[in-house]
């Protein structure tokens, strides 16, 4: 019985040692496999981290660079446009001076003739001179020639007030008689008409000067308007470019923040997994 017991203990111990040896080998293999897996995870994590950091830094650098470009475009582009626009405006004003002068002269004579015609119509109540419309009369007569205008008005007076036998009493007749006959004035009808024509011509000169100034200002403003519209397009293009660059920069920064958040979240999960493997 003792021999059987010893034999059993010996076999059991041997089997236990064999089992322990096999378990030791298995534990060693599992430990090596676990260490290998952990090393692979760490290496993969290092590569992912490196790539993620490169992408993040690239997005951040790109966003910062684009922000700087936007500021530079806005600053130097606006400054360049301002300087160029100032020079263009000066050139436009200088070049438009001759055009403005010509436009002023073109507006001066019609305005003056129109003022003289209205003055004669109001003062003398006539619509024709020398048997023709006053517009036609002034096509061959300067509006400043007081004597010729007075001659034409006097001829109209003679035809209306002297030679007509119907006793006409128009404004032209009344005006001439007031100067020549009333209150003992010994002044000819021609002189009274000439005296009345002079202020009409003088007032027409004032009207002509105003017309010249208006036409000149309008011509200069048109030249300035061309420059303004041209540079307004340039300003719009720069503003659109700056806005586009800023939007791209913001997108890059947002991508950087999202990638950074995802990488940190992933690293925390891997750290927890590694701790579990080490336990």
From TrEMBL:
<protein>
    <recommendedName>
        <fullName>Rifin</fullName>
    </recommendedName>
</protein>
<dbReference type="Pfam" id="PF02009">
    <property type="entry name" value="RIFIN"/>
</dbReference>
<keyword id="KW-0472">Membrane</keyword>
<keyword id="KW-1133">Transmembrane helix</keyword>
<dbReference type="InterPro" id="IPR006373">
    <property type="entry name" value="VSA_Rifin"/>
</dbReference>
<feature type="transmembrane region" description="Helical">
    <location>
        <begin position="237"/>
        <end position="259"/>
    </location>
</feature>
<feature type="region of interest" description="Disordered">
    <location>
        <begin position="1"/>
        <end position="38"/>
    </location>
</feature>
<keyword id="KW-0812">Transmembrane</keyword>
